[in-house]
Amino acid sequence: MKQDRSMDEVPAYFSELGRLRMLGGDAALDFANTRHWRDGREIDFLTGYRALIDWAVVAGLLSRAEHDRLRDAEAIMPLQAADVFSAAVRLRDIWKIYLAEATRTELPTDLSQPLDAVRHLVTKALGAPLAIAGLPADTLAGADMALSLARTALAIGAFLALPHAGTLRMCEADPCGGVFLDTSRSQKRRWCAMDSCGNRVKAQRHRLRMKAEAVEPPKR
Ligand SMILES: [Zn+2]
User: Fold this and answer.
1) What is the whole-number distance in angstroms between the Cα of residue 180 and the centre of ligand 1?
2) What is the reported pTM?
3) Fewer CB in a 10 Å sphere around the end CB: N or C, the chain?
4) Separation of 204 CA from ligand 1 center, angstroms?
5) In this structure, which residues have their CB less than 5 angstroms from ion ligand 1?
6) What are 89-138's pLDDT values in tens digits?
7) DSSP 72-95
């Protein structure tokens, strides 16, 4: 993600739950952000296998052609698809636990336990093929259904293993739970996006200030 790109240009996944922009700066972080707080309630954008593969295209983890083959195969292999979806949600939730610990600022934490849990699931997911073989018209094998999960695991593995630009942070808007890479020169990015979480925090502070002024006794 280029730093000077305006937030409107960030790719976004659209579903009946709303818009989910890829604000993490890395597909692994965008995966964690598929579940986060918005307007006081937690929203899970991963609602099923179809949502997983739709999201994976926007996140850059599946090509449109791969997506279409997987979508068609879901009708033939619904049980395999359901298993892949469950495994993806498990990986996402463990990954979020790790990221919450890794971005904690108050106390030094021991990351070894959540990290082991993430690594275990990543290794398991990487047992599936990382590419679909054959022509578009060919029937997919059961193991191919896990392509989006394997690619996501690859992104998480790469995030953990490779150096990345920027600092890993959690959005300061409360509650939000969004994570991102702060690649700003000043290293002071505090929110997923200024036009959403940033504005919400500012409006909240304004309301509190107005309330505090309203209850002050009148001056004589
Ligand atoms: Zn946020």
Assistant:
1) 9
2) 0.90
3) C
4) 14
5) 171, 173, 176, 178, 192, 197
6) 999 999 999 999 999 888 777 899 999 999 999 999 999 999 998 888 88
7) HHHHH-HHHHHHHHHHHHHHHHHH
